[in-house]
Specification:
Length: about 300
């Protein structure tokens, strides 16, 4: 990414949680440790089924006594429903806000927002919140702001881009989105690179789905991974990548020559030229340090 860009993320919604029991309520539910959240540090986390399968991912930000949840708009109704079921008699009030989310990314994003290039770092400027994406600092800065935010006035150095531009940036980094690349009630957390994306704690204690997640980690039984896909052609979500007629990967996202696929690691060939469609490549994202496949 060679330029500084800003995109309105219309596919995101901000929920607000208030009440004296909010911290404990979230700590007992989510995959990450609420002890890490404060007004200068946000958190990436997920909500799982009791069997340890993915349901929702989100970013949690503390603003005063309120905790904000940055979640996908398409599945906000299901998230609200599940959180409401769990809260029972807890002193927790959940509301949907009118706030917008913008992404500032490319050259100088962190410096422009007066933030360090540290995943999860947060500052408040007036009524607006600026935060380095807690999944990976290379994603850039998210801005949570009121509905009258004017991007060109607030960040005059940035070029306004559509959501396809931000999607290309995300896919280039190989960072998955919940509900799109991570399928609810299908994927396990570590298949979706959650450990490398700062989304899970292995020492916080119990949460919903914790037992299977911990067992997978300690037994090193991760058989699938979300990896990058490069292909000079078109691929559709759900399309198979095969080896000798056998499916070894399923495309989850793809646009303009790059995407993300869920890959069976044990079936990866030594020679990528054996994969079909011919010319397709499966590449390990840079943020994964373990040698899964050859990096390019």
């Amino acid at each position: 990414m060679s330029n500084l860009n800003i995109t309105a993320l219309k596919n995101r919604t901000i929920l607000a949680l208030t009440g004296k029991d909010v911290w404990d309520f979230l700590q007992n539910l989510i995959t990450n440790d609420m002890k890490l959240v404060n007004e200068s540090q946000c958190l990436y986390a997920a909500l799982l089924t009791a069997q340890g399968k993915f349901l929702h991912d989100f970013i949690i930000i503390k603003q005063g006594e309120t905790f904000l949840i940055d979640c996908t708009t398409e599945r906000k109704g299901d998230l609200i429903r599940r959180l409401t079921l769990y809260k029972l008699r807890s002193d927790v009030t959940l509301t949907e806000t009118a706030n917008q989310v913008f992404a500032l990314y490319g050259d100088g994003a962190h410096k422009t927002a007066n933030l360090p290039a540290k995943a999860g770092a947060v500052i408040q400027s007036g009524d607006d919140l600026y935060l380095v994406d807690p999944r990976n600092a290379n994603l850039g800065v998210r801005i949570i702001t009121a509905s009258d935010f004017n991007a060109s006035e607030a960040i005059p150095a940035a070029t306004e881009k559509d959501e396809a531009s931000y999607e290309a940036h995300r896919l280039h980094l190989g960072i998955p989105e919940g509900g799109q690349d991570i399928i609810p009630e299908k994927n396990f957390l570590l298949e979706a690179n959650f450990e490398e994306l700062n989304g899970v704690s292995f020492n916080k204690g119990c949460y919903v789905g914790q037992e299977l997640t911990a067992r997978t980690k300690h037994r090193a039984k991760i058989k699938k991974r979300l990896l990058r896909v490069l292909f000079d052609g078109s691929l559709e979500p759900g399309e198979a990548i095969t080896l000798d007629g056998r499916e070894i990967a399923v495309v989850r996202s793809f646009a303009n020559g790059q995407g993300i696929a869920l890959v069976r690691l044990e079936n990866l060939p030594e020679d990528p030229a054996m994969l079909k469609p011919e010319g397709v490549k499966l590449i390990q994202p840079e943020y994964i340090n373990l040698p899964i496949v050859e990096k390019h």
